[in-house]
Fold each of these.
Amino acid sequence: MDNIYRLDEPSNLSSPALLIFIEIVRRNIGTMREMAGDAERLRPHVKTHKMPEMVRLLERSGIHKHKCATIAEAEMIARAGGRDVLLAYPLVGPNVRRFVQLAAGYPETVFRATVDDPQAARALSAESVAAGLARPIPTLVDLDVGMGRTGIDPARAVALGRHVADLPGLTLDGLHAYDGHQRDADRDARRRAAQGGIDAVFRVRDALRAEGVAVPRLVLGGTPTFPIHAALNADDVECSPGTCLLHDHGYGTKFPDLPFTPAALLLTRVISRPQRGRVCLDLGYKAVAADPAGDRVRLLGVDDAALGPQSEEHLVVLTGHTDELPPGTPLLAIPTHICPTCALHREALVVEGGKVVGRWEVAARDRSLGI
Ligand SMILES: Cc1ncc(COP(=O)(O)O)c(C=O)c1O
């Protein structure tokens, strides 16, 4: 599969550099659409790329719903022309006001929020009312379906949903649940494990509806459970994978059932050959994410490569091929975890047909774009 990564003129490109193989991105988007059945059922997470041009590409592909984790990502989406943004992250402290400022500052975009706590819901409501927003903030109740990170216990979620529905300045917009802890390599085992969380979401939805409370949407999951949520026979479900747009070596090896191809690679170079059997690359953990533990990349073109120590700007590689790897040799590497890797780069070089055809800014790597 590795010859799908053609790069004709690496000699003019500084390294380390983030490369986006755009034909593969387009294919991944097509696969996402096919799996979801309808673009309306997709709400991809932008935290993977943080790039306005990628938002525009999704919009051109008919995908108009977006999910994000930071205020900067939300603002980036609105600036890029996205008109439907869900910020799936608890709003606390000054971020409550910043969120309301976003809603006021970009009136053509609908900004949806999540809450998992009555006090936080009241704070958002008060800020929304004080700002006199043209429309109430669509607010989803975030459920903890077993990950234990954020979200309310489903047993208490009906009361919170009712509370949100009654608060001025907010409307209940549905339920949100992220099941990133479902990581079984086998799809059927993953489906069985995820079913309890899905059932819990459906139970909360049905209980609210039975009380006459509208629950317009259920926003579920990330990439590993995407095929499972996409196959649910429920048209109120929106799937919110992020990683699969660019995909990476981590998910590629852990979840072989996922029909996506890594599309974002790193250009690196041999910078030193300190000893026989050992080269050093310019691929430290300021160029490729140090998360998770273990190998941070899969190096292409060096079949026996074993990754050695890594520091800020250096990655040692142990190989029997040092004779073929003089300093300056360009190499490509697939990141193990693409999302934090993108955030380490100010821009990505877009590669099409082996040529660099553009430079895309990773705009939302910053914490604030203005608001
Ligand atoms: C709340 C939320 N939704 C969706 C996603 C996307 O998940 P994935 O990276 O598996 O595509 C994430 C990832 O961290 C997340 O935190």
Amino acid sequence: MARTDVLIVGAGPSGLVLALWLSKLGVSVRIIDKTEGPGTTSRALVVAAHTLELYRQLDLADAVVARGHEVPAANLWVKGEPVARVPFEAIGRGLSPYAFIDIFPQDEHELLLIERLRAFGVAVERRTELVGFADEGGRVLARLRGERGDETCEAAYVAGCDGARSFVREAIGADFPGGTYRQLFYVADVEASGAALNGELHVGIDSADFLAVFPLAKAGRARLIGTVQDERAERGAALRFDDVSRDVIDGLKIDIEKVNWFSTYHVHHRVTSRFRRGRAFLVGDAAHIHSPVGGQGMNTGIGDAVNLAWKLAAVLAGAGPDALLDSYEVERIAFARRLVATTDRVFTFVNADGRVAEFVRTRVAPIVLPKVVAVEQVRDFLFRTASQIALNYRESPLSVGAAGQVHGGDRLPWAPAEGADNFDTLSTTAWQVHVYGTPSGGLAAWCERHRVPLRAFAWRAEHEAAGFARDAVYLLRPDTYVALADAGGSAEALDRYFGERGLAPTAAP
Ligand SMILES: Cc1cc2nc3c(=O)[nH]c(=O)nc-3n(C[C@H](O)[C@H](O)[C@H](O)COP(=O)(O)OP(=O)(O)OC[C@H]3O[C@@H](n4cnc5c(N)ncnc54)[C@H](O)[C@@H]3O)c2cc1C
């Protein structure tokens, strides 16, 4: 019988990132997918700034940025007229090294992840489906169906990265409460020309219709997302691109030469009732789905994968108790619920029916939007939210203390200062300690004894501005979140942190 540490079911972005992280940490994985090959359609386009920050740990960030397309501005068109343009160059400045909107279609993204995974000697096992599993307490026995028949695979854990219709979710008896919006949307990847094909984002609205035009990296290519109105919405899967309303498309003066992909879909908003049962976990769309407003879906699945990976690796290495794995659900379910609630509010507002809603969309928004976005605080808020850098785990049992404005559970603030960028140290996947100022002698000795890198940054005004406290200790988890913030800067606080949780600081692989 084949044996592996972690059986990953599903080779979408969530499963692939989980496989990459675990492989980097030396954990053995099998990653299976029931399809013949990777997806060939663009689906999720935006790679959030925080995903790029996390991708530094996998040495992926530069490749994604190089192959992606940076969107310079967003434009609003109302009834065929361009009414507002919001440039993105000032958005998120100083908050992240990736303060821009990066578009990298999901099909190309998955190919890159597969290529990197191959470098670890791991290949996706295609046409292989999980058809059953039993959690025996000490191990999982999974039944896989492939081209050569059924086989049993023994694994320490199973990760259900198997998408919205997750088999693993059903098997662990988790509910998927939420709902489905009544509107029908279409998505089309097109080759086209016209003013709206200038590499910027364009949103067009008229009385009833809505159209978003996302630029793709290749010139003359774009992704259209629009609404399907009236009785045409009843036709569902039978609908063709030629059937959808041309009003907004013509209004944006888009001349379509070729349609490479067309699909219609209903948008759901659901979060699973549990992310874990025993040795089985849910990751990505298997655990949460919501409207594509803000491009959060794929990024949230990748965030789940990173959160779970280091915990699985620690427990498998005997460096953490089983309870560490419970923190995965605590940390990620809270975020998923907030996200679904927020995207639901925005979606409902954007799609509201009635004359008042139409007046707000077509008359008020064009005037108010550029003024609001011109305010730095508003821009920062929007960037922090959409980029996921504001996501924190302050309520987690793994998060302790506060020093300055930085709390246990926060994403480490970015504070580049003369001679040193504190994010340069974040490419490792191990525990580390940051001190902004002077570390105490006891702290240096503790870090050496436990083989935890100590990164000391000479105190600068930029550190204070970013919210750090001078000489405090910031213990970073392997996923770079702040675990402990201790203003006293003592080694005893580190001992207490690890001791109380039964954790051992594992060294970098
Ligand atoms: C038309 C469309 C447009 C989208 N647009 C956006 C967007 O603009 N922005 C955004 O953020 N997101 C968007 N999404 C959503 C985005 O594609 C998903 O959030 C993302 O793919 C989720 O990744 P995942 O790895 O969790 O799941 P998936 O990508 O769904 O991968 C799950 C994998 O599991 C496999 N699988 C399922 N069951 C089994 C089994 N029993 N055994 C073996 N394999 C199995 C499937 O074959 C699949 O490959 C869009 C999706 C669609 C369909």
